[in-house]
Amino acid sequence: MSGLTKSIQTATHKVDILRGIDFVIEAGEFVAIMGPSGSGKSTLLGLLAGLDNPTTGQIVLDGEDITGLGEDQMALLRGRKIGFVFQSYHLLPTLTAEENVLLPFELTGGINGTNGRGRARELLESVGLLERRDHYPVQLSGGEQQRVALARAFMVRPPILLADEPTGNLDSQNGQHILELLISLNQREGTTLVLVTHDPVLSARAARRIVLRDGVIVKDES
Fold this sequence. Notes:
Elements: E1 2-9, E2 14-21, E3 30-34, H1 41-48, E4 56-58, E5 60-61, E6 64-65, H2 71-81, E7 82-85, H3 97-107, H4 116-126, H5 142-153, E8 160-164, H6 172-189, E9 192-196, H7 200-205, E10 208-213, E11 216-221
Helix pairs in contact: 3-4, 3-5, 4-5, 5-6
């Protein structure tokens, strides 16, 4: 990210959410983005994911300049390169756990030489849910739904995984389980892991912490 800003215009004035963000995240890094509410963390993650466009500045993602890409182009790039874990899971209620995990595979037309169902079951086994693969989200606990969401995010072996408060809706035990799964999957798959969190336990496990306040980076430490 280089010279990144994000502003919105209200009825009465302009609000500067991000004000000149510059940093480089290396392949395979585990980075926690932290800061108080309103500091711009989720906005920054959304820009990284191409879910929104910056007001000014440049974003280069895995060698591709995504600044100003059209939505169709960005959707294709996200499908190939980005896994996303949301705080609120975002599982489709009409699909089983296995079908939810398979969804990115099917949306991107599959992976050459890879058996989709086999990959989905391998991931469900890695998060301890293989025996519940035929259950629907309503039949799963919050912790189990987040584990399905985590398996889904890794389905197409994305080089980058972004997570927005992945333990925010979970109790401490389930939160710790999700953290260990994130780290183990990150290490096993070699995925760059960038997450937004308020959780000091989670951020302490990151190799690097970027702290935002009022839309600027106030600390960047390993």
